[in-house]
């Protein structure tokens, strides 16, 4: 399986690429080949007098390539110019990637995590499963927030077709995932004991039984309230390493627009997020 790994060649991304546990988790997911891509500004001209931007970029990219190759991955590198999310997704389509990986750093002084511009735009337009990897700053250094990427998974579902497609990711995650919490959020109008809530509990339990049969310790939980708030509350209680959910498009146009819940979760969660887009946009 093949992944596109987007890098801005920063210390933050190098911390993620250099984390052996993260790379081992990608291997358990099935990734054995990585296309490492960096997107430079279209306004920078290679070969300009007094400019060594191209060579410095190549040196940094080769350093990250060597890290990945030492861990056993087959690696291709790409230096491209243009709009980052378009070039990243374009490469993913061209090589038929199984996964796209982007890093995201929290920038809010209120300690609310805000997804970076490039990561947000990739998430809004990707037609491939996307892993948004959290990177945090500690004492002027960087490290990944959860290096055991898929060890504890919070799966949020509204029982839509795209949520079912996201659940299919457990086919790849089952060797990497030890625990899972399955969450469905019922709107406030649906009261406990109603047929709709009972049906949701039964459907969640059926999914949990599926995971238990695979050796994953799974729990099922129906919550009531605003979907984003309840999923984030479940995250705080369960402390997952990754949140898994579908990114459902609102628009019939070619470009995929994230639904408000998936966008809010991707922006505000402290865990990694694995987003799965609808089949119809591929």
From TrEMBL:
Domain UspA positions: 5-132, 150-277
Name of the protein: Nucleotide-binding universal stress protein, UspA family
SUPFAM superfamilies: Adenine nucleotide alpha hydrolases-like
Similarity remark: Belongs to the universal stress protein A family.
Taxonomy of the source species: Archaea, Methanobacteriati, Methanobacteriota, Stenosarchaea group, Halobacteria
Transmembrane intervals: none
Native source species: Halorientalis persicus
Pfam families cross-referenced by the UniProt entry: Usp
